[in-house]
Each structure stands twice: as C-alpha cells, then as structure tokens.
Amino acid sequence: MSSLCMHLLLCSRPMHKVSAGSTRIRCNACGGLNSEIARYCSRCGTDLAAAPDAGTPSAKLEGVTSRKQDSKPFRRCPKCHADNPGGAKFCCACASDLLHPPVESKPEAAPASAAAASSASSTSSTSPSKPPKGESASGCRICPGCHVLNPSAAAYCAECGVELPKDTTVPIFGRPAGFWIRALAYTIDTAILIIVSLLLHESLGLPDPDFDRLPFERALVESIPSIVVDFTTSLLYAMVFVGAWAGTIGKLVLGLRVVRFSDGGRVAYGLALGRSLAQVISMIPLGFGYFWVALTPSKRGWHDYLCDTRVVHVKPE
User: What's the N-to-C CA distance of the chain in angstroms?
Assistant: First the structure.
C-alpha cells in the first residue's frame, strides 16, 4: 500500500525539466517558457527580443535559452513601434524623437493574451519600415536638411527628423571625370574669378603696387589687401556653388558634379569650404596634387582624398 501511494505521488508531481534538445525561450519578466518562434511572452506579453534588466536574475535551465539582442541592435519607436537603426535619433516612419520619448501614463493591466495580440499586430503592421539588408546607396534618400542617407522606405530622416522627398534622391552618376576635362573646368572658373577680382579691386579702391619700380618688400606689403580679397572670393565661390549646386560654374557647364566619394551624396557647405582650403595643399608642391588626378584610376586629387570627394560626370555612359 505504501509503495502504491509513493508511486502515485511521484506520478502526480509536475515535471519542470526540459530535454537537452529543446530550444524554448524563457521570459525574463515572468519566467514563462515560450516557443522558439515566439516574439512576445504568451503569459505576460513581454517582448522577448528586449534585453533583460540588470537587476532581474535569469535562472539557468538546461535546454532553455534567453533571447538576446542582435549583433546590430535596432531602436524601436515608442509611438508606431517601427524598427529603426541603432544610431537613429528620430523614427524613420513617423519622425518621433527616439532619444526623448514622450512620457505616457501606463494604462490599466489588460489580459496577457490581448496585450500580446495587440503588440504583435501593431509590430507586424509597421515592420516593413525597416530597410532591407544590402540596399545600395543609389536607392536611398538624401535628407534635405543634414544630407544624411536614409533607406528608401523611410519617410523622415533618422538623424534630424526632417521629412524626406517621396522619390529616391541619390542619382546614379557616370564615370569619374578625368584630368583634362577638370583642367578645362578649372580654366573657366579662373577666368570668372579674374573678372570678379578686377571689379572688386576697382569698387573697393585697392592699391595696385608696381613690383618693377617699388622694392619687393614694400610692394608685397601693399598687395596684401588684394591677396586677402582674392583668396576670400575664391573660397566663397567654391563653397557656395559646390554646396548649393554640387559644382562650380566651369564644372556645371561641362556636365560635372562634386559628390561624396563614400556614398555619392551631396557635399555640404562646410565640406565644400574645407575642400577649397585643401586645394592649397594640392597646389603647393608645383601643383602635383592636381596632376595626381591623371595618375590614379579613381581620378581624385589630393584635396579629394582629404575631404572624401570625387568629381564625376552627370549622366552614366
């Protein structure tokens, strides 16, 4: 009789041991076990993809694994639940601020099954906003505010929250521009700057020292105002035209554009100014930095390497 009672007692005890080959997932909030394909806990509705809190102990059970974050973490929007890149500051689907989400009052506790179903339905409806892997730069959208590349499915910039254009804005350019066509564009720009410089010297009444009659030191000192005006004019000319229209007048006439080498995006005003200053480095050693365009397959000068830019034809061949 006692052996029969002992047998019934052992058979009635719940078995919590999981086989070694099981791949069920333990919820870090309630400790419940879920299927390996589950995304939300069937008991409490907790997101199984979220990392566990630092103070929550996770009991180890043979054959049971906890869901960890991917090697490339994403940031979920608290408003529309869309998945965004890990470094995103604004949601690509609704432009909500991801760094400072609004504080909302917690609703009353709902049944676990209803919460899990609502969360799964909202996530499945917004998940297409996540860009596909391996998307090329030619299918992305450039933010008109900060010039950052965004996925083609994004509606708002992930960096600054500005609304993106409806169509993809990264054009497909042709081959890199060679040395001679860039030299011709430089000649056109030089002729324009000479005309502008003469007009400025006349309107500002700048002195025109005679190096043949005056001592060299005195003539050099008197020419400093003219040098400063000419240098400033050339810097502003390159910065404004490259930043606004992706090329100076000479390049625009010949169908050339200055773009970023890494992604083909538009060059910002600050980078255009830095590129104009970097041309001094290409000019100092007898212009060897410019001749480097003819010696490399990428057709880039020293100033292009320093500023991550390149000059390309507008239309592909």
Answer: 94
Q: What is the 3-state secondary structure (H, E, C) of 91-123?
A: CCCCCCECCCCCCCCCCCCCCHHHHHHHHHHHH
**Helix H or strand E encompassing 83:** strand 83-85
Would strands 24-26 and 64-65 be described as parallel, antiparallel, or unpaired? parallel
SS3 268: coil
If one counts every other C-beta atom within 10 angstroms of the C-beta of residue 206, the result is 18
Q: How far apart are CA 299 and CA 317, in angstroms?
A: 17
Token readout for 176 is 């890199």
3-state secondary structure of 114: helix
CA dist., res. 67 & res. 45, Å (int): 14
From the number of C-beta atoms within 10 Å of its C-beta (0-12, 13-18, 19+), residue 157 rates as buried
- The Cα–Cα gap between 8 and 139 comes to 68
* Closest to 305 in 3D by CA, of 278, 284, 283: 278
Q: What is the pLDDT of residues 206-236, one digit of tens each?
A: 877 777 787 878 888 888 888 899 999 999 9
Residues 186 and 179 sit within 8 Å (Cβ to Cβ) = no
Q: Residue 75 forms beta bridges with which residues?
A: 84
> Model confidence over 271-310: pLDDT tens digits?
999 999 999 999 988 889 999 999 988 899 999 999 999 9
Of 54, 57, 56, 49, give the one whose Cα is nearest residue 25: 49
Please say whether the beta carbons of 161 and 95 come within 8 A. yes
